[in-house]
Inverse folding.
């Protein structure tokens, strides 16, 4: 089995290195990761400047590159150009902090896995629910290893990624695992206004998570209650429930070739 490891916290982050240590005995590992933290970059790609890629030596790795680009750049470049062999799996993470609910739209971690799916490779995103400097990634990495073995036996859907979020708890306190839906995850978008030494105004984004009511099967609730959450995410964002309704709403336009001035 060949696995591509990537992330949005940078190639030197503890999460990706815990995964590397755990998975190198079960698969041929390639690492293609950003040169620095790229959290919150979502599915952005680099199109107006060159993408620099440098080979790096990492223990237990078939080949590794550090990329001056986004997490999605890493996966696109890895699959399209850097890695000649066919990949069996992309694993993105382990992220420092959760990627729950609508976080997945902002997350570089989840977007890297989504790009794997776009390029035809089954993909998993993994996050640990803490930003502490004392985070222990060992249990999370061991769980990912078991999860990979489980899903690869059956075979993964190539058009759906798995988003895994693990509570930051001692292993004995984790209650189990839930297959979850995406919950509600909004923030107080507090923009602090500041001035630079030349008197120019700039803004610094802050704000915490807003507490909101969650569905019983949501990933947010699962992690809050001490369960590992696994959410299958499909990239087709179409709301099929509303297609027929909007065909009726716009029926007069659908019937006319002249749609306006």
């Amino acid at each position: 089995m060949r696995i591509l490891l990537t992330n949005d916290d940078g190639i030197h982050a503890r999460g990706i290195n815990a995964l590397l240590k755990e998975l190198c005995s079960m698969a041929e590992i390639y690492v293609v990761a950003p040169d620095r933290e790229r959290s919150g970059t979502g599915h952005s790609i680099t199109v107006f400047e060159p993408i620099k890629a440098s080979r790096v030596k990492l223990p237990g790795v078939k080949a590794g590159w550090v990329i001056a680009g986004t997490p999605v750049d890493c996966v696109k470049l890895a699959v399209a150009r850097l890695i000649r062999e066919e990949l069996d799996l992309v694993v993105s993470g382990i992220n420092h902090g959760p990627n729950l609910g609508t976080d997945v739209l902002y997350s570089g971690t989840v977007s890297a896995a989504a790009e794997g799916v776009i390029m035809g490779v089954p993909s998993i995103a993994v996050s640990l629910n803490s930003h502490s400097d004392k985070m222990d990634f060992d249990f999370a990495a061991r769980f990912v290893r078991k999860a990979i073995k489980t899903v690869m036996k059956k075979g993964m859907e190539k058009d759906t990624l798995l988003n895994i979020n693990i509570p930051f708890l001692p292993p004995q306190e984790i209650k189990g695992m839930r297959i979850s839906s995406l919950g509600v995850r909004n923030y107080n978008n507090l923009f602090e206004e500041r001035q630079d030494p030349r008197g120019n105004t700039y803004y610094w984004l802050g704000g915490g998570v807003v507490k909101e009511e969650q569905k019983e099967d949501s990933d947010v609730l699962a992690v809050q209650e001490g369960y590992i959450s696994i959410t299958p995410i499909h990239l087709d964002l179409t709301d099929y429930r509303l297609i027929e309704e909007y065909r009726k709403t716009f029926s007069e336009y659908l019937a006319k070739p002249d749609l306006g001035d």
Summary: The CA atoms of residues 30 and 63 lie 5 Å apart. The two ends are 57 Å apart (CA to CA). Residues 2-184+213-254 form a domain with the Stationary-phase Survival Protein Sure Homolog; Chain: A, fold (CATH 3.40.1210.10). The first strand starts at residue 2 and ends at 6.
